[in-house]
Design brief:
Elements lengths: L13 H18 L1 E5 H19 L4 H11 L5 H16 L7 E8 L6 E7 L1
Antiparallel strand pairs: 1-3, 2-3
Length: 121
């Protein structure tokens, strides 16, 4: 029995999967919209939802920076600035959930993989 399986393995080992999700998160904050396959999008939605909720619970910018560096390790200054601008913007507008919107875009013709567009709200 497979109890408590909360994520898909994405045919990768754990370190590769974690770095993939972190890099997709950085790109989502930087470009505000990314296109990826459906299994990656589902994993990214759950990770980003938890990440953004916990980020907005931080009381000041210093704690927010520490949390960003801890969770999305190896971040450069540019990606931290994008995440902090999102933090400052969302502190004004109170939104409880659904920070990322998903939309099915198209299927790849060669292997019928469903592509999804993720947009940061």
């Amino acid at each position: 029995m497979k109890h408590a399986i909360f994520y898909k393995k994405l045919s990768r080992d754990s370190s590769h999967r974690k770095s993939l999700i972190k890099n997709l998160t950085k790109n989502l904050f930087e470009y505000k919209s990314i296109t990826t396959t459906k299994p990656k999008a589902v994993c990214l939605l759950s990770f980003c939802g938890k990440f953004i909720t916990r980020l907005l619970k931080q009381t000041n910018r210093i704690e927010a920076i520490k949390y960003i560096k801890k969770v999305v390790s190896g971040t450069d200054k540019r990606s931290i600035q994008f995440m902090l601008s999102f933090y400052d913007e969302k502190q004004k507008n109170v939104r409880l959930s659904n920070y990322v919107q998903k939309q099915r875009v198209f299927k790849i013709r060669s292997d019928s993989a469903v592509m999804m567009n993720l947009k940061l709200l």
